[in-house]
Specification:
This protein has two helices and ten strands; from the N terminus they run H-E-E-E-E-E-E-H-E-E-E-E. Strands 1, 2, 3, 4, 5, 6, 7, 8, 9 and 10 form a ten-stranded antiparallel beta sheet that branches. The longest helix is centred in the first third of the chain and has 17 residues. By secondary structure, it is an alpha+beta fold. Strand 8 and strand 9 form a beta hairpin. 16% of the residues lie in helices and 41% in strands. It has one domain.
């Protein structure tokens, strides 16, 4: 037991010394980029996501949403990579003075280039999916005022989430890519 404890302590020391953390701040001293690298993989977070990384254009006249009252950013590019799995999520939130129906028509047309577009309704944004199949499905009771347009597979998908806001719309452009042990992102 003593040898096992000593071995575990040595592993922790090796991991801690082999880990690197890099934090880059913006002009206001706020964290914008965080990179963590370990012998087992890395986590990279950028709060200034580039919308081009979603693979989707921005609706004409839309404005990128700013931080809310809680200080939460409205865009992120997160990449987690290990030898066993990987996940990349790019999300950028916008607002438009146009009604949701106009955004739905526009993004249905844009998403067609990636495959068949699935239209789902929910009470709020839902980017988690259950089951073993890689096929995208609508989750929940498919009722609500948030509309999600999805295309692709669970492991490689584009999502546009549109929600009515006053006379206009709030919407998010999202790209999700996952991989298992034998695939790459």
């Amino acid at each position: 037991m003593r040898r096992l404890s000593l071995f575990a302590a040595m592993v922790v020391v090796v991991i801690a010394t082999a880990c690197s953390v890099s934090v880059k701040k913006d002009d206001n001293g706020q964290d914008k980029n965080v990179d963590i690298n370990t012998p087992f993989g890395g986590i990279h977070v950028n709060e200034n996501a580039d919308v081009r990384d979603t693979g989707l254009p921005v609706y004409a006249g839309a404005r990128q949403k700013k931080k809310d009252d809680s200080g939460d950013e409205k865009s992120a590019n997160v990449n987690i990579s290990t030898s066993e799995f990987g996940v990349k999520v790019v999300a950028v939130e916008y607002e438009s003075d146009d009604a949701p129906s106009k955004l739905v028509a526009y993004y249905k047309n844009e998403l067609k280039k990636f495959g068949n577009v699935l239209e789902c309704h929910s009470e709020s944004e839902n980017y988690t999916y259950k089951g073993d199949s890689d096929e995208l499905k609508c989750e929940g009771n498919n009722h609500g005022n948030t509309l999600e347009l999805k295309v692709g597979t669970k492991s490689n998908q584009h999502i546009v989430s549109i929600k009515p806001q006053g006379k206009g719309s709030d919407f998010a452009l999202v790209y999700v890519r996952t991989r298992g042990k034998d695939t790459t992102i």
